[in-house]
Amino acid sequence: MFRTRRLSVLIGVAVLALALLTLRVLLWRLGNNNFDMRGAYLVWQAYLIEHGRWHALRRPIGMYFPAYYELTTLTSYLDGHFSRVTQIKLISFCFDIFAAVVAYFLVGRLTRHDGSEGPSTAQLVAPFTILAGPTIILNGAVWGQCDIVFTSFLLLSVWAIIADKGALATLCFGFSLAFKLQAVFLAPFLFAMVLGRRIRWQSLLLVPAGWIIALIPPVLNGARVWDYLLQPGSQTGAFPVLAIDVGNPWAVLQAAGMSARIGLPIGLAMTVALFFLLGL
Question: Among 65, 113, 221, 254, which is least packed, fewest CB within 10 Å?
Fold first, then answer.
């Protein structure tokens, strides 16, 4: 009886997951006129295809780090079979699945009890916090954004810490940074794990590995490393405002007349201070 019920639950979970993935594919036709899709992603994809794909990586294309362009280069080989919008959204589709799998094992590690059979209820629910998350579906399937990519590596980094694999945790954190600078928000947690001796100080040397590996294809095609190392600085200058379409204290200060030139150093100082406070 128990095995029959367990099999029924697993089949139900599989059907629900398949339905949520199918929903993503159906939503691919929506949201394709947003600014990032028309002004960035499709432009970058066209540039890669027209300039020899991997050979186009010899110079920075936009404000994103090289790892993202390498993924779009891979999906560009589907050109002629699928639309370019589909090529772009396929990246987030694959990493939605990857993040859901990582979430399953991460929660399973936290809820595992000796002698228990099969996954816990929390472990079965965990992947659906990814697959059924409205903001995640909108971000990838509708808007074609790629935030799930660096988030997946952050989840993997947390799993590695729980599994007592400190070196793998810093390596995954480095891969996350190789896609987007926003991954730095996990840094206070990793700092706390270093202080708590869950991660060795030496393992922090693995953080740049993701960036170094991502630079290999551009360098092999004649890129200058310095051009790519300057990309984080170009991101900070791309949107010289304190807040864009978000309700937070910076939006209030911006409305009161504070410029990014004044707010940026203040924000950086507060970030560093909070970094150490959260870590401690």
Answer: 113
